Amino acid sequence: MVAAGGEGEKVRQPKSIQGNAGDGSIYVDVEPDDEHLETIVVDSMHTRKVEMAKRCCGFVGLPGGFGTFEEVFEVTTWTQLGIHTKPVILLNVLGFYDPVRQQIRNSIEAGFIQPYNESLITFVDGPSSKDEHAEYDWGKAALEALQEWHEKNKTNDLKKGKNVFDWTRKTGDENVKVDALSVS
User: Fold this and answer.
1) How many Cα neighbours within 13 Å face the side chain of 90?
2) For the segment 131-148, what is each residue's pLDDT rounded down to a tens digit?
3) Domain range annotation of the chain
4) DSSP state, residue 82
């Protein structure tokens, strides 16, 4: 699943400028595989996120801007609330997400986030030097993190519905399941 927004055109620069950006960026001209490509048109950003959540086995966030931040925190909140039980992985390229990790820890210390919810986001830390980073396989690291999360969470409290919001409501003597998004 590929999703891009905002200033996404910067990822489709011609090959002639690869390595010439001067900022350590590497631009790759990727040709889509139309044979396996499905275009889904939706009427809102929320519907788009629900559709992505229905179809994926996890979420991987790369360094990005406001849209990336919003989507990462929304799917993390969905995990916290028990709307889905899917991993949220952040590729911490050259420490990009270190401030986010620290903000989560600050929120735990201040009492806004429960300590057990620190593990709702998995940070994948690669090499700290730019030289090593150039050869690092972030795709492999992301897949390994997804695999580890699924192995670790087969039987943990998250899968059992513990430490998540109770989406049932009381009506008389009967509990009724509230299926807000249907993104299991």
Assistant:
1) 23
2) 898 889 999 999 999 999
3) 52-163
4) T
